[in-house]
Amino acid sequence: MDIQMQVRSVNGSIAVVSLDGEIDVYTSPKVKEFIGKLIDKGTYTFAIDMQNVRYIDSTGLGVLIGGLKRVREHGGAVTLVSTNPQTRKIFDITGLIKVFDIYDSVDEAVNALK
Amino acid sequence: MDIQMQVRSVNGSIAVVSLDGEIDVYTSPKVKEFIGKLIDKGTYTFAIDMQNVRYIDSTGLGVLIGGLKRVREHGGAVTLVSTNPQTRKIFDITGLIKVFDIYDSVDEAVNALK
Amino acid sequence: MMQAREVGAEIPEIEVRIPSRAEWVALARLAVATVAARMHFNVDEIADLKLAVAEACTNAIQHARESDEIVITCRIYPDGLQITIRDFGIGTEAERIRSRDLGEPRVGGLGVYLIRALMDEVEYRVEHDSGTVLTMFKRFGDSSR
Amino acid sequence: MMQAREVGAEIPEIEVRIPSRAEWVALARLAVATVAARMHFNVDEIADLKLAVAEACTNAIQHARESDEIVITCRIYPDGLQITIRDFGIGTEAERIRSRDLGEPRVGGLGVYLIRALMDEVEYRVEHDSGTVLTMFKRFGDSSR
Ligand SMILES: Nc1ncnc2c1ncn2[C@@H]1O[C@H](COP(=O)(O)OP(=O)(O)O)[C@@H](O)[C@H]1O
Ligand SMILES: Nc1ncnc2c1ncn2[C@@H]1O[C@H](COP(=O)(O)OP(=O)(O)O)[C@@H](O)[C@H]1O
Q: Which fold has domain D13-139?
């Protein structure tokens, strides 16, 4: 019913953000703030690990889209990690699968950013 | 939200009944029927393993008391296995802790019946 | 006895209405557990609340004749959670709803006893021909919040 | 379009009423998931139902001005589950509640689109000054039941 967030840095410039929990209208402002602060500090390249996200809805998608737009203004990029079929389905039916690259592991998502 | 039940026999005469799930007004008739059938077939000595019972209420207690009464008429006995503090608490406040012996493991509960 | 408590816009209220049937009690329990978790009751207190709600629903199902639904209302007060369980059956007089003495173990008769043991305030009100209303309250323990 | 369906004693009805606040949407989701699981919808279908309900509640919270609660009603029909989400706000006209074309990604505008994609029947009714009622229906899939 809540969300846990962690960040670690790879190669100095890539931030791996791990999200654990449910991303909905209640928790997505927290995710937005968390990512927003990292962008404010000058991080523009993100691998967002959603392997432990059990639920995401349009408010969560909105946060990801908003984050992507901000980092792109600085030439940055966002990759996602998820193996959850429901999450992939939502990206599929909203067409966001064409906007975000979704990988099966953090390693792949990080490598794609290099 | 439901209950799984299994029985295995030890030394030919002791039935170890394992309950897995929640015992409430919806599921306790199923438990009652399961144990009732074993008694009908002549089993009067039970170790009831409730280690995987996540929830029990007065309807479940009623089934255990009813079973105990029936087997006692045949000189039988019932021991229980539970380490769940909430389950123990309910036996405590209802005074049933004096009626049932509750053990921490199936081995102990079975040995007590020998 | 039940302390008088105001009802108002500042008191968040969550209500669940279920058919008066055994298969829906788990939903009432889950909903109350979710409300209690949001209020930061601890695990033991949440277990107590689930049990009290289930006992009340079980009684409504088993004893309220001709009632087809149960309404569970949670009100979040600054000092704890008030839960009202209402059925629409032909009830017993409130005085007859009581916990029995715990003597020789017998099947039945533990529900009201448990409710009184687990909750801080408990009150039954029987409305003539329109069902039974159980109002109960659990204060935040020292460990919660 | 919504097929006309009877309401009656034989159609089990479960209702959840929550404050119109973000922190309670999870409860609505959980309740609907529990109803759906009882009806033997499969895990994918349950996930769809949770999402549709959450999107509807989110919209009620974000767009229904001056509404302080949301009522989620589940009706169990022989062929599937009907869910009604009602708020009491000053709504938009029903015609204006529509899914946008998915072009350039932008923040927002996906909720109604998802609801229509995930449910089999969807209908909005805006009652003048008394809120929006979304009625949606999901049939049992071949894999469920
Ligand atoms: N909602 C209710 N409607 C009518 N009678 C009730 C209700 N709740 C409790 N009672 C009465 O109180 C008695 C005691 O209930 P309880 O302690 O749960 O034991 P049991 O249900 O096993 O009889 C019941 O037998 C019934 O007569
Ligand atoms: N319950 C509601 N009350 C009032 N307006 C609503 C309601 N639900 C949806 N709407 C309208 O439909 C539009 C589309 O909603 P949606 O697709 O979820 O996108 P978003 O909420 O991001 O704008 C909303 O912007 C709003 O104008």
A: Heat Shock Protein 90 (3.30.565)
